[in-house]
Amino acid sequence: MLFNSLAFLLFFPIVCILYYAIPSAKVKGRNLLLLMASYYFYMNWEPVYAILLLTSTVVTYFAALGMGHFRNKRKKKLCLVSGLVLNLAILFLFKYYNFLASNIEDVLQTSGLGIYIPEFRMLLPVGISFYVFQALGYSIDVYRQEVKVEQDFLTYALFVSFFPQLVAGPIERSRNLLPQFRQRHRFNYDGVMAGIRLICWGYFLKLVLADRCGLYVDAVYDNIDIHNGGSYLLASFLFPFQIYGDFAGYSLIAIGVARVLGFRLMENFRRPYFACSIGEFWHRWHISLSTWFKDYVYIPMGGNRTGKASQYFNLMVTFMVSGIWHGANWTFLCWGSLHGLLLCTEKTLGIGKQDYPGRRKLCHWTVTFVLVCMSWILFRASSLHDAVTIVSGIFCKMGIPIITFAMFTELCLAVLALALLLIKELSEEFCWEWHIRESRYWLVRHLYIVGMITMILLFGVLGGDQFIYFQF
Amino acid sequence: MKKFIVSLVFVIAGLFAADRIGGVGMNWVYGHTNDVLSPKLRYLCHDIHEDVVLIGASRCHHHYLPSILSQTLGMSVYNAGIGGSNNIFSHYMVLCYILARYTPKIICLEVMPTDYCQQTDTYNALSFFAPLFGYNEAADSVYRLAGNYYQYHLSHLYRYNAKASSNLLGLVLNRQAGNDNGYIPLSKPNLFPKKLATEDMRNDIDSLKIRYIQRFAELCHDRQIKLVFTVSPKYTIVDSSHYNILKDIAQKNGILFLDYHSCGLYHNHAEYFKDSSHLWDEGARRFSKTFSNDLKEILRQDKLS
Could you tell me how far CA A237 lies from the centroid of its own chain? Predict the structure, then answer.
């Protein structure tokens, strides 16, 4: 079920009413309701894939029980490894097998061996990378004894499948979310209203900003042969805002939905395009994933505690894994590697460690923004060949962007939405005192909701487009 | 909970007010904009009176010059083609709007494979007509197929969603330049299409669309309107049997079928085309002359018989 579908707009209020109809003291009853709602939510795409979700849950649940049960360190490790292997095997089979098989086939063919490797013919289950990573995070936390083993299967199953963040995050930590499923959640007026306002802003980012930008971005990236450098440049400038609106929009809706139900999910974006270095960008972009990689990949490899060379090696590996996490394509691997390289360069030059004054800050911000925009080309292009065509086109095939009048009108709206986003982010970044969404005036806060919904009704792309991160 | 209910009531009431006031505002914009679509929809519902009406999508909109047709046929002509309205459901709605006002003598329907084949975005173009929701019951019934009938009922603002930006820009930019009774010319392209590509038309037949084509024909028949199916030139190669299903419908209903798809006059002339599907102004002028002469001859023979 998509957040931007009519089905969800019916589903969510019904879940809320039923949820608050159960007395807050009956925590188990509420959790059972949420678990059923989460599975229903997930099964709306492809019911059979709920088996994968359940498998991942059962495997990590029993692996954690095993880790809690055994005192022997080797046995504990065996439990952890078996949980990790089984989960990663599911992820590999559905996400990476075909990519690897086709590449091996290509290599064999070029070396004269025409061997056919059978394809795995099943669609990629929605959100598999998100819930598998969340479950793996729990297993590792239990192994490290950072969280207690969750004995109650229902609570744990809800932790893995909690519908607001099930298919595109934020990837929650067990130490933050699991305890919340054991707490009583009384109806909290301020929390519910704050959640609704977050949901409205999230929808605005997705439906007005991201989907409007997406109309032009898709028109260019899906037909690169008929466009020129000007179109590539414009589309490559718009894509960063499309993906930000899309993903931050989703995260805000997820956080807002959870907040209405009384849960607090972690922040996933913190004005990423205000970053003055690539390192800072990764502290602001997809925070739940970047901290996951930091905690469970980078630091276990040695992190910053090793020598310079191995520190750079660790960084590169982490970013390459992060790239391939996004999708089985060379473009994602190169995108991750590029970010790794940029970060290593920054570390070598000592950039990003101090706060720069006025003009220098602007200079750093500009360079970072351009680099991030350029790297998104790799992310959005369907192949490395397309990415090279676009980058070379920007420099060698420059011209006035090819744009129809209809598309021009769509972009005018995108610019309007972008201006609103900019004002909001500037006010937050520089702590200006005009927060409309969280205004202290009751009327302003309520008019904000009315205004957002009105703008979405009039200017939103209401065709129920997929969220970009669903494919990961 | 009390506070929440007060908030909920306030938001719902505020939304209702914003929707109705916004709807009135956008209706004013719709009534005053100089965009391409809205003035045409206004004309279709309130002013249309021509003897001959051409219905279709962008290929109709940019291929038939009413001034040339009118000169040759000696009848008034209006081009009701709407860019992007790419299947029979939209054409059926246009017919309903026209018939609610008067009965033309001849209707020419520019047909395309999307009129009878399955598409992924079958109902997208119906939103173009949403500002006219409530004007004609038969046309509104098509929204039930698309599943947004009740949304349009509920929200006045949502009816203007599809063309909100172009309607607003149409207040400051006049896009009616070159308007010839509904026809808007396409400018000369920088690059003419280079390759005569083969058109892939292997999509399955959509039985619901076939039913609507039949219904379209019946409506015209009931009102004694002469219906003509036309296919204007395209810069593609197509299997000649492809239009058989339409030819069968035409034959059964006594409808004239004029196929210029692969007409030799245009097929070897990339210079008439803006892209593989559209003639630019010069090509459209030339085609309009051919088409109007053919139609005149057919009408003359009809009279004699």
Answer: 20
Contacts of residues B208-214 at CB distance under 8 Å and 24 or more positions apart, as own/partner, are B208/B145, B209/B87, B209/B88, B209/B89, B209/B115, B209/B116, B209/B117, B210/B116, B210/B245, B210/B249, B212/B88, B212/B89, B212/B92, B213/B88, B213/B115, B213/B116, B213/B246, B213/B249, B214/B249, B214/B253
Q: What is the CATH number of the domain that holds B121?
A: 3.40.50.1110
ipTM rounded to 2 decimals: 0.83
- Residues in chain B within 8 Å Cβ distance of A187: 1, 4
Beta-ladder partners of B257:
B229
- The answer to whether residue B253 sits within a structural domain is yes
Q: What is the C-alpha separation between A28 and A30, in angstroms, rounded? A: 5
Residue B6 lies in a domain: no
CA distance A337 to A323: 7
Q: Is A326 a catalytic residue?
A: yes
Residues in A closer than 8 angstroms to B22, CB to CB, are 454, 457-458
**For chain A, domain boundaries:** 6-186, 190-276+356-471
Q: Is the dihedral of CA A369, A370, A373, A374 positive or negative?
A: negative
Within 8 A by CB and 6+ apart from B194, the residues are: B270
Do A84 and A136 meet the contact criterion of CB atoms below 8 Å apart? yes
Contact A170, A268 (CB under 8 A): yes
Which residue out of A185, A283, A286, A326 is catalytically annotated?
Answer: A326
Residue B209 falls within a domain, yes or no?
yes
Number of domains in chain B: 1
Q: What is the pLDDT of residue A120?
A: 77
pLDDT tens-digit readout, A407-417: 888 889 899 99
Element housing B207 (H / E)? helix B207-222
The pLDDT, as a whole number, for residue B99 is: 93
- Decide if B109 is inside a domain: yes
A93-149, pLDDT tens digit by residue? 888 888 888 888 888 888 777 777 788 777 778 888 899 999 999 999 999 989 999
Span B247-297, pLDDT tens digits:
888 888 889 988 887 766 677 788 888 888 889 999 999 999 999 999 999
Count Cβ atoms below 10 Å from residue B246 Cβ, excluding itself.
22
Q: Do B165 and A459 make contact, defined as CB atoms within 8 angstroms?
A: yes
Nearest Cβ partner for B18 among A408, A410, A454: A454
Residues of chain B with pLDDT under 50: none
Higher pLDDT, A397 or B225: B225
Q: How far is A307 from chain B (nearest CA, A)?
A: 56
Residues of chain A that touch chain B, judged by Cβ-Cβ distance less than 8 Å: 187, 189, 192-193, 405-406, 408-410, 412-413, 446-447, 449-451, 453-454, 457-460, 462-463
Phi, psi of A71, deg, nearest 5: -100, -25
Overall size of chain A counted in residues = 472
Nearest-angstrom CA–CA distance, B140 and A463? 19
Q: Compute the distance between CA of residue A1 and CA of residue A8 in angstroms, rounded to an integer.
A: 6
Which tokens belong to A348?
């070598």
